[in-house]
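Title: Comparing notes on inverse folding

I've been comparing how different people in this forum approach sequence design from structure. To keep things fair, I'm posting one structure and asking everyone to reply with a full sequence. Here's the target:
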């Protein structure tokens, strides 16, 4: 996994979002979610303006948010087998950097 380096603003953040596309690091792809591997639950960055939209879309299995969550669950399942230390380190970073709130009912 590529390391995460956040300063005050990501150099890859363009006006329309991330300019890295599919080559962005896992931690960036996971955002606006964070995953706690100890509790096995997802959290959401409270300061993300998409919180309400994301939560609303989770009721629709065909939505962008539902597809994102399914993709992240699959990636996390693979990482739990191959690099659990990375998941712990990624969550430690997210917990320090973002204001996280649990996604109710979204535990694995």
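Reply #1:
Here's my take.
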């Amino acid at each position: 996994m590529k390391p995460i380096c956040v300063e005050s603003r990501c150099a890859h953040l363009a006006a329309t979002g991330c300019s890295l596309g599919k080559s962005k690091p896992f931690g960036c792809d996971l955002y606006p979610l964070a995953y706690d591997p100890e509790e096995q639950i997802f959290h959401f960055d409270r300061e993300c303006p998409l919180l309400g939209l994301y939560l609303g879309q989770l009721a629709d299995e065909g939505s962008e948010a539902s597809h994102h969550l399914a993709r992240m669950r699959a990636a996390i399942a693979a990482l739990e087998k191959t690099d659990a230390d990375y998941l712990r380190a990624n969550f430690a970073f997210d917990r320090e950097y973002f204001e996280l709130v649990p996604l109710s009912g979204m535990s694995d």
